[in-house]
Amino acid sequence: MITFPEIRAPSYPIGMEVEDNSLRSNFEDGSMQSRVKFTRRRAKYTLKWNSLPQDEYEILYEFITKKVKYSAQSFTWTNPATNKEIEVRITNVSNVELSTLDYWTITLELTEV
Question: Quick check: helix, strand or coil at residue 105?
């Protein structure tokens, strides 16, 4: 299994969004019927680095583009809050910019497999 590269921890806060795994139907009388769509709820994590040094940015960029090829390959990532390994995919890369000389800002969205 591929693992996330060992670079500095992302800046805080780390965003987390849990997928709603239910279906709901509203009726004309104002009532609602609902049920579970599927049994597993996947979490989505938003990681942001505000000052990632050039050398670590290159490691991360190589990982994203050549090793996992964005969302083509899943990998294990250790959640810094729980210290548990989670199998995830990269579902979005955004806000990539050279914020100061030799320091990058980048935001990644990781979604559980």
Answer: strand
The reported pTM is 0.83
Q: How many CB atoms lie within 10 A of CB 86?
A: 19
Show the tokens assigned to 45: 């994590």
Q: How large is the greatest C-alpha to C-alpha distance in the chain, in angstroms?
A: 61
Q: Cα–Cα distance between 47 and 81 in angstroms, integer? A: 12
- Taking only the tens place, the pLDDT of each residue in 4-50 is 999 999 999 999 998 877 778 888 888 888 777 777 778 999 999 99
Instruction: Report the distance separating Cα 2 and Cα 42, nearest Å.
Output: 20
Reduced 3-state DSSP string for 50-100: EEEEHHHHHHHHHHHHHHCCCCCCCEEEECCCCCCEEEEEEEEEEEEEEEE
Read off the amino acid at residue 106.
I
CB 101 within 8 A of CB 111: no
Task: Say if CB 61 and CB 67 are below 8 A apart.
Answer: no
